[in-house]
Amino acid sequence: MYWDSIIRVKNGLERGFERVKVPYSSFDMNILELLTKEGYIGTVSRKGRGVRRIIDIKLKYDSEGEPAIRGVKFVSRPSRRLYSGYRKTKTSRQGSGHYILSTPEGILTDKEARKKKVGGQVLFEIW
């Protein structure tokens, strides 16, 4: 599940790792590609075949060595899923962060969801 992948990335950044490997799933890959596009992680690549597939993630730091991801807060949980229409989707951290949503259009940030006028399940907030 995506929880594990995001936590592994966050822990890798806190420990100063250059790369992190997580088990492959297409849902996780879509989320990680979105985070790459938004500038939170370096690169993602799929490696291996069959059951042994993994996602290799190159982590990203700023010029001072600080992690690109400052924090993550999971909004939806298995026991309590939170859905939001595009009109009610808030901005994260006064525009300095993003809410990540699972929508019928795919995995989108809060800004993209408002632009496409589509709502969905709010997965987590990242800044």
Automatic annotation (TrEMBL):
Keywords: Ribonucleoprotein, Ribosomal protein. One of its GO terms (cellular component) is ribosome. GO terms for molecular function: structural constituent of ribosome. It holds the Pfam family Ribosomal_S8. It comes from the Bacteria. GO terms for biological process: translation. Belongs to the universal ribosomal protein uS8 family. This is Small ribosomal subunit protein uS8. It comes from Candidatus Colwellbacteria bacterium RIFCSPLOWO2_02_FULL_45_11.
